[in-house]
């Protein structure tokens, strides 16, 4: 009597599956690859951005001249800061920079609309308008210092008499802001020119067929498509106004009588000239808090728009 082996082979127990380790899962491999690619950038951001911010906040609670031992003073630097007239002058000037610097985006848009046309020689004109953007702040400051000079400056020749713009506390801040608007307008112009190249020409033609032109075309057709460029221009302009430093250092040195100083230059002045590293750090923390409020507001607005 022969016994069939079919049933035995069918009921043969299978080998147990090996458990999938978490480090070999596909999702973990994807996350690991992303983390490895991001690690160098995160390391640099942590080393050159996050650490200096945290150390500046830590340093603001100490009295230190940069050489001797640090002395913990708690909130004394902040108390002195909010009882100093120069701090409020710098704060007022920062607000003035913020308001007047917002003239750069509409001025840049106007120049971009003028340059966005196909006529002979427009490339040369574009290069002339683009030139201020590639100049350093020191060069721009020197050019406008000569322009404002009351003895041989171009402004004196235009008016017929000299006006000490950089030597008068009433005019010095406005004169420096006007100088800063020159390269900032060129930068906004570049942003808007880039946005104009991506405008949907079919929408423009359809609007023309409907009779839209001039301001109606600009407001209802062009500007809605330039929203990303407008957002970038406004953000960069406001941040530039809050961290203004180079032109003030070159043109007035914060004077006369500290009438043109801003928070960034006031912080530098206290650290370099008077060796007050802790007090300078307190000024920098206040400026960082102002910028942080603005950045968080715009990030929330941008995320809400994307959603």
Layout of helices and strands, plus pairs?
Blueprint: H1 6-10, H2 26-59, E1 62-63, E2 71-72, H3 76-81, H4 85-101, H5 104-115, H6 122-134, H7 137-148, H8 154-159, H9 172-197, H10 201-209, H11 215-225, H12 227-242, H13 246-251, H14 263-272, H15 277-306
Antiparallel strand pairs: 1-2
Helix pairs in contact: 2-15, 4-9, 4-12, 5-9, 6-9, 7-9, 9-12, 14-15
How would you sum up this structure, described in words?
The chain has 307 residues and is an all-alpha fold. The chain has a domain at 85-274 and 284-306: MetI-like fold. 69% of the residues lie in helices and 1% in strands. The chain has helices at 6-10, 26-59, 76-81, 85-101, 104-115, 122-134, 137-148, 154-159, 172-197, 201-209, 215-225, 227-242, 246-251, 263-272, 277-306; strands at residues 62-63, 71-72. Strands 1-2 form a two-stranded antiparallel ribbon. A hairpin with a 7-residue loop joins strand 1 and strand 2 (71-72). Helix 5 packs across helix 9. The relative contact order is 0.12. Residues 4-9 have low confidence and may be disordered.
Tell me the helix content. Answer: 55-70%
CATH superfamily of the domain at 85-274 and 284-306: MetI-like
CATH fold assignment of the domain at 85-274 and 284-306? MetI-like fold
CATH architecture term of the domain at 85-274 and 284-306: Orthogonal Bundle
The oligomeric state of the chains shown is: single chain
Question: Distance between termini?
Answer: 77 Å
Structural class: mainly alpha
Domain ABC transmembrane type-1: 90-300
Membrane topology: Multi-pass membrane protein
Protein name: Multiple sugar transport system permease protein
Family: Belongs to the binding-protein-dependent transport system permease family.
């Amino acid at each position: 009597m022969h016994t069939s082996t079919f049933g035995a082979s069918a009921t043969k127990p299978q080998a147990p599956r090996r458990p999938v380790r978490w480090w070999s899962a596909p999702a973990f491999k994807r996350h690991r690859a992303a983390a490895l690619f991001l690690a160098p950038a995160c390391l640099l951001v942590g080393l050159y951005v996050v650490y200096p911010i945290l150390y500046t906040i830590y340093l603001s609670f100490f009295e230190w001249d940069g050489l001797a031992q640090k002395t913990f003073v708690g909130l004394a630097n902040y108390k002195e800061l909010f009882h100093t007239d120069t701090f409020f002058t710098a704060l007022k000037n920062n607000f003035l920079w913020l308001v007047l610097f917002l003239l750069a985006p509409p001025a840049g848009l106007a120049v971009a609309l003028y340059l966005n046309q196909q006529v002979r020689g427009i490339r040369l004109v574009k290069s002339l308008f683009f030139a201020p953007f590639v100049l350093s702040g020191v060069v721009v400051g020197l050019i406008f210092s000569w322009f404002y000079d009351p003895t041989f400056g171009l402004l004196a020749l235009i008016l017929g008499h000299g006006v000490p713009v950089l030597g008068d506390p009433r005019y010095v801040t406005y004169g420096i802001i006007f100088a800063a608007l020159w390269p900032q307008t060129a930068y906004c112009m570049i942003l808007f020119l880039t946005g104009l190249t991506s405008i949907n020409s079919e929408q423009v033609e359809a609007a023309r067929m409907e009779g839209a032109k001039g301001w109606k075309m600009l407001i209802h057709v062009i500007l809605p498509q330039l929203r990303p460029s407008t957002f970038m221009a406004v953000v960069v302009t406001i941040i530039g106004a809050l961290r203004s430093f180079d032109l003030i250092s070159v043109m007035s040195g914060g004077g006369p009588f500290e009438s043109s100083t801003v928070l960034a230059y006031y912080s530098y002045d206290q650290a370099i000239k008077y060796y007050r590293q802790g007090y300078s750090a307190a000024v920098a923390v206040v400026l960082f808090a102002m910028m942080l409020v603005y950045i968080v507001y715009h990030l929330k607005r941008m995320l809400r728009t994307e959603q």
